[in-house]
Amino acid sequence: MSVTTIKDIAERTNLSIGTVSIVLNGRGDEMRISKKTQQRIIEAAQGLGYLPNVSARRLRQSNARNIPVIAIFWPSDLSADLLGRFIMGAQSCVLAQEAEFEMTIHPYKRNDIERIRDICAGGGYHGAILTGLSADEQEELEKDKLSVPVVLFNRMSSVYSCAYVDTYEIGRRSAELFASRGHQRVGTIVPDYLVDTMKNLRFKGFVESCKKYGLQLEPHHIQAAPMTMAGGNAATKRILESGEPLPTAMYFPLGPMAVAALPEFYRAGIAIPEQMEILTYGDHDAESYSVPSLSTVKLPVEEMAEGCIRLVMARVLDTSAKPTAVPFETPFVFRESCGGWRQGEA
After folding, report:
1. CB 293, CB 280: distance < 8 Å
2. Residue 123 CB partners (closer than 8 Å, separation 6+)
3. For strand 150-153 and strand 127-131, is the pairing parallel, antiparallel, or unpaired?
4. What span, in angstroms and rounded, lies between the C-alpha atoms of 245 and 320?
5. Does position 164 have pLDDT exceeding 90, yes or no?
6. What is the Cα–Cα distance from 102 to 251, expressed in whole angstroms?
């Protein structure tokens, strides 16, 4: 059974989504919308079985206290570990008494852009932070902008404010590191929703730089998988079972995926890093405590989340402000699995 949205009511009444939203949020008289139109909208909503937006009530309550309410949109296939780190960074603004706000996490399925639009148009939020967007999702949302101030997490944009890293450069530097370590045959795992090399800049940077530095990246050494521990484990099994000579260096797109791959390498008798070096991305806690510990390209999630909160609050306070792009650095963190281990380096 489908859930009735404000868009459905707008189509039924032949009115704009904005007008419907205003009436359903109890602001019809304030905005001088005729009683006849208000009644028309209310009857359509009742006829379609529309459920009132609880967050809209919360927004009206928070307005009395002047506390902004922020929606965080989180794709269901993005690492839960990342979400924990994001929340840790976001709350630091409150703990430092820089800002007071309410924050709600909205999970959504890939390509369900209409859900994001409906929630933003529902009048329940002052601003939104979008995380983990695919290139296609970002393109669609930039063509038809959302109705509230928006900040993108870890995506570069000229349309919305954003906190980002240079993903192509991450891929290039990873390939360069493997080349400097004397490798000739390498492999990688690709997030299954980012298989297109033209739109996955980190993968594109890695692939193009492998060619530039003379590294062999065979098709059977490139495996697509969900960004989960189970995905990393399954993709590793496929590489090991290919029957082809194995790569001497592997690049994983997420730390927990590489942690889940380690038991498979162990069962296959492959010594890390003596026979295969591993580099990953993210710098999750598990990467420090695995055996061997994993070298990584650090994604400063907590700092970026804090930056997102500051950016969205700035846009909420001044909706006329131009979008701001804030870049973050991504240093190597060398541990036991690749590049030489230096005790105590963080």
Report:
1. no
2. 21, 22, 24, 25, 27, 53, 56, 59
3. parallel
4. 58
5. yes
6. 38
Based on its alpha-carbon atoms, the radius of gyration of the chain, rounded to whole angstroms, reads 23
Measured between alpha carbons, how far is 46 from 283 in angstroms, rounded to an integer?
50
Task: Answer for the pair 269, 313: CB distance below 8 angstroms, yes or no.
Answer: no
Reported pTM: 0.75
Residue keyed to tokens 């206290």: 65
Return the higher-pLDDT residue of 225 and 91.
225
Which one is predicted more confidently, 131 or 95? Answer: 131
Q: Are strands 127-131 and 325-327 parallel, antiparallel or unpaired?
A: unpaired
Tell me the C-alpha distance between 252 and 261, whole Å: 10
**Cβ contact 256:84 at 8 Å:** no
Three-state DSSP state, 40: helix
| Confidence bin at 125 (pLDDT 50/70/90) | confident
CB-neighbour burial class of residue 197 (10 A; exposed 0-12, middle 13-18, buried 19+): middle
Determine the pLDDT at residue 98. 64
How long a stretch of residues is the chain?
A: 346
Read off the tokens for 236. Answer: 């590793």
The DSSP 8-state label assigned to residue 4 in this structure reads P
